[in-house]
C-alpha cells in the first residue's frame, strides 16, 4: 500500500469513527472548548513569566507585583477546571463509543452466516470484541484529547513566541521539517506493528481457547508439549512486536527532545550575541525560554500519541471489517404464520465453497404436509447438509426449495425459522438452568407446566427430578455437567416445546441407551403424527414406521420408498438393514 493510500484509508476510518461520536456532539464540543482553554493556559503561563520578569524584576512596579501571585493561581485554577472537563468528557464519549461498537458487533455476530463461523476461529472473533474495541477507545479519547489540547498548546505558545520575537521563533522553526519527516516515518511503523499485535492477540486467544476446550484430548493424547510450543510461538511473537513499538518510542522521544534542545542552544547563542542584546529584552528572553521549555511536553506527547493513534486506526479497521461482513441474506420479505409443511426440493445442488466438490447433487424430493421422511446413508453422504438447507443455514445457487409453494428464499428468514424445530447432531446447551435451556427462545411466553410437560415427553423428567435443584440446576458450559444422553433429552424437550410445524431430528436419539430410546421413540412418533418431520438416523430400527425413507449416497438420493418396499427391493437399504439386523 502506498503511503498516500494508507493515509486516506486512515482518514476514512477516522471519519467513520467520528460518526460514532456524532450523537454526543454536544459533549464533544464542550470537551473541545475545555481543551482549547486548557491549551491556552500554557501560553498564558509564558505570558505571566514575561510580566514577572519585566514588571516584577526589571521595572519593580509595586502595583503589578501585588497581582502576580493571583495571576499564577488564576492560571492554574483555569487549568484544573478545563483539564477535568476535557478529560472526563472525552472519556465519557469513548466509553459510549465502545459500548455502541460492542453492541453492533454482537448484533452482527448473531446475524452472520454459518460459513463465517466455519472460516474464522472464535478466538479471533472474541479478540476483536474484547481487545480491538478497547484499542479503538484509546484512539477516540486519549488521541483526540492529546491531539487537540497539545496542538492548541503548541499553536498558542508559538503565537506568543512570534508575538514577542519573530526572529527567534524563525530560528526555532528550522527544526520543523526534520520533525515532520520523523513523525511520518514513525506513524507508518506504528500502524504496521499495531496490526501485527492485533493479529497475535487473536492467535493467543485462539490457542488458549483450544487448550481450554480440548483439555481432555490434550491430556490423554499427550498434547501438552505441542500446545506449550504453539503458545510459546504466538506469545513470543506478541512480545517481540510490542518491543518493536517500545524501541521506536524509546528512540523517537529523546531524539525529538534533542532536536528541540539544539534549537534551544542556537537561540540562546543568538540571543546573547552582542548585536541582539539591545533588541531582545530580559523579560522577552525569559518568557521566550519558558515558552520553549513548555513546548517540549506537548511536542513529545504528540509524537508518542502516534503509537496510540496508529493502534486505534488498525483496531478500528479490524472492527469495521467485522461489521462490514455480509450478513445472512434476507431477500425474502414474505412472513408466514403457520405453514402446512409441504416441503419440496427441486434439483438442489450445493457445495460448501465455490471450488469444492458438490455435497448435494441434483436433489429432488417431495414431502407432503404432516409426512415423516427419514434420511439414511453412510457417514458423509450429505444428510446433515441436506436438512441444513431448509432453515437456510447455507445459501445455495442451484435449484429451489419450496415450502407450501413459496421459494424459501422469498420467505422472511425469521418467520421461516419459526416454523422449524431442530434437534441437531451436536447438541448445544447454554450455561444456564435446565428450565432456561428447555424454554430457550420462548422464555416468558411459556408456562412452567409447559416446560415440565415437554420434559416429561422427552423422558428428561426422570433425571431432572433426581438433580438436587431440579429444573433450576445449572448445566455448565455447553451442558458439561450432564451425560450425553441427558443432554440429548433436553434438546428433544426444547424441540417439543417449540411445537413447530416442521421438525428436524438429526441423530436425535443416538446417545441414548436402547431402553430410553424406545420410550423416546414412542414420544417422538406421537410428536411426528401431525407435523412434517425430517429424521436422520443410523439405527434403522428407529425409522421403520416413517412414511418414506430416502437413501443417500454421495449427495444423491439413490433409493426411496417405504421400509418394506425397500427391503423387498434388496438394494442398498436392504443391505444396510441386514447388516444391522445381524449385529
Ligand atoms: N461446514 C462444512 N464445511 C465444509 N464441508 C463440510 C461441512 N460440513 C460437512 N462438510 C462435508 O460435507 C460432506 C457431507 O457432510 P454431512 O455432515 O452432510 O454428512 P452426513 O451424511 O450428515 O454424515 P454423518 O452421518 O456422519 O452425520 C462431508 O464430506 C463433509 O466433509
Ligand atoms: Mg450428519
Write a structural description.
- 65% of the residues lie in helices and 10% in strands.
- The chain has 583 residues and is α/β, with parallel strands linked by helices.
- It folds into two domains: 3-323, Up-down Bundle (ABC transporter transmembrane region fold); 331-412 and 533-583, P-loop containing nucleotide triphosphate hydrolases (Rossmann fold, 3-Layer(aba) Sandwich), CATH 3.40.50.300.
- Helix 7 (176-213) packs antiparallel against helix 9 and helix 19 (563-569) packs across helix 20 (572-582).
- The model is unreliable at 1-7 (pLDDT under 50).
- Residues 383-384, 425, 506 line the site of magnesium ion.
Question: What's the quick description here?
Answer:
The protein is α/β, with parallel strands linked by helices and 583 residues long. The protein is built from 20 helices and ten strands.
How do the helices and strands line up, and which of them pair or pack?
Layout: H1 3-21, H2 25-58, H3 62-111, H4 114-119, H5 122-164, H6 166-172, H7 176-213, H8 215-220, H9 224-271, H10 274-277, H11 282-323, E1 343-350, E2 360-367, E3 372-377, H12 383-389, E4 398-403, E5 406-407, H13 413-418, E6 420-423, H14 434-438, H15 448-457, H16 461-466, H17 484-498, E7 502-506, H18 514-528, E8 532-536, E9 548-553, E10 556-561, H19 563-569, H20 572-582
Parallel strand pairs: 3-8, 3-9, 6-7, 7-8
Antiparallel strand pairs: 1-2, 1-4, 4-5, 9-10
Helix pairs in contact: 1-11, 2-3, 2-5, 2-11, 3-5, 5-6, 5-7, 5-11, 7-9, 7-11, 9-11, 15-17, 19-20
The protein binds adenosine-5'-triphosphate (ATP) and magnesium ion.
Amino acid at each position: 500500500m502506498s503511503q498516500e493510500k494508507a493515509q486516506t484509508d486512515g482518514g476514512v476510518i477516522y471519519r467513520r469513527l467520528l460518526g460514532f461520536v456524532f450523537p454526543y456532539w454536544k459533549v464533544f464540543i464542550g470537551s473541545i472548548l475545555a481543551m482549547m482553554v486548557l491549551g491556552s493556559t500554557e501560553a498564558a503561563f509564558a505570558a505571566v513569566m514575561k510580566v514577572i520578569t519585566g514588571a516584577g524584576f526589571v521595572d519593580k512596579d509595586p502595583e503589578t507585583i501585588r497581582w502576580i501571585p493571583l495571576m499564577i493561581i488564576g492560571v492554574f485554577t483555569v487549568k484544573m477546571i478545563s483539564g477535568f472537563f476535557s478529560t472526563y468528557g472525552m472519556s465519557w464519549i469513548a466509553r459510549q463509543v465502545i459500548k455502541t461498537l460492542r453492541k453492533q458487533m454482537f448484533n452482527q455476530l448473531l446475524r452472520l452466516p454459518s460459513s463465517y463461523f466455519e472460516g474464522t476461529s472464535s478466538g479471533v472473533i472474541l479478540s476483536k470484541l474484547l481487545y480491538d474495541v478497547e484499542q479503538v477507545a484509546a484512539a477516540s479519547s486519549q488521541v483526540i484529547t492529546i491531539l487537540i489540547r497539545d496542538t492548541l498548546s503548541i499553536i498558542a505558545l508559538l503565537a506568543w513566541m512570534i508575538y514577542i520575537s519573530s526572529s527567534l521563533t524563525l530560528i526555532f522553526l528550522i527544526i520543523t521539517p526534520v520533525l515532520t519527516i520523523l513523525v511520518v516515518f514513525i506513524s507508518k511503523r506504528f500502524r504496521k506493528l499495531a496490526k501485527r499485535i492485533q493479529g497475535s492477540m487473536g492467535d493467543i486467544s485462539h490457542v488458549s481457547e483450544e487448550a481450554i476446550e480440548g483439555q481432555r484430548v490434550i491430556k490423554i493424547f499427550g498434547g501438552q508439549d505441542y500446545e506449550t510450543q504453539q503458545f510459546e510461538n504466538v506469545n513470543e511473537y506478541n512480545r517481540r512486536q510490542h518491543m518493536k513499538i517500545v524501541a521506536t518510542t524509546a528512540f523517537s522521544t529523546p531524539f525529538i527532545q534533542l532536536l528541540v534542545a539544539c534549537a534551544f542552544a542556537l537561540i540562546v547563542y543568538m540571543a546573547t550575541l552582542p548585536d541582539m542584546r539591545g533588541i531582545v529584552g530580559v523579560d522577552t528572553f525569559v518568557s521566550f525560554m519558558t515558552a520553549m521549555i513548555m513546548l517540549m511536553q506537548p511536542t513529545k506527547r504528540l509524537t508518542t500519541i502516534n503509537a496510540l493513534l496508529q493502534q486505534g486506526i488498525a483496531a478500528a479497521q479490524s472492527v469495521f471489517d467485522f461489521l462490514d461482513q455480509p450478513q445472512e441474506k434476507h431477500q425474502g420479505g414474505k412472513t408466514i404464520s403457520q405453514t402446512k409443511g409441504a416441503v419440496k426440493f427441486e434439483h438442489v445442488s450445493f457445495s460448501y465453497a465455490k471450488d469444492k466438490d458438490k455435497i448435494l447433487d441434483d436433489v429432488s424430493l417431495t414431502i407432503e404436509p404432516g409426512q415423516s421422511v427419514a434420511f439414511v446413508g453412510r457417514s458423509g453422504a450429505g444428510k446433515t447438509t441436506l436438512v441444513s438447507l431448509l432453515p437456510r443455514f447455507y445459501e445455495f445457487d442451484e435449484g429451489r426449495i419450496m415450502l407450501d409453494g413459496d421459494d424459501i428464499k422469498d420467505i422472511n428468514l425469521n418467520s421461516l425459522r419459526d416454523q422449524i424445530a431442530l434437534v441437531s447432531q451436536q447438541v448445544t446447551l447454554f450455561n444456564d438452568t435446565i428450565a432456561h435451556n428447555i424454554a430457550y427462545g420462548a422464555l416468558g411466553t411459556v408456562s412452567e407446566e409447559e416446560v415440565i410437560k415437554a420434559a416429561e415427553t422427552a423422558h428428561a423428567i426422570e433425571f431432572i427430578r433426581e438433580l438436587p435443584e431440579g429444573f433450576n440446576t445449572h448445566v455448565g458450559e455447553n451442558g458439561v455437567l450432564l451425560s450425553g444422553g441427558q443432554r440429548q433429552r433436553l434438546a428433544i424437550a426444547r424441540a417439543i416445546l417449540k411445537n413447530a410445524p416442521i421438525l428436524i431430528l438429526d441423530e436425535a436419539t443416538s446417545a441414548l441407551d436402547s431402553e430410553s430410546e424406545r420410550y423416546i421413540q414412542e414420544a417422538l412418533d406421537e410428536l411426528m403424527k401431525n407435523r412434517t418431520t425430517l429424521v436422520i438416523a443410523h439405527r434403522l430400527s428407529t425409522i421403520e414406521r416413517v412414511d418414506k425413507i430416502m437413501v443417500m449416497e454421495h449427495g444423491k438420493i439413490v433409493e426411496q420408498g417405504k421400509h418394506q418396499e425397500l427391503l423387498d427391493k434388496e438394494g442398498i437399504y436392504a443391505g444396510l438393514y441386514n447388516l444391522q439386523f445381524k449385529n
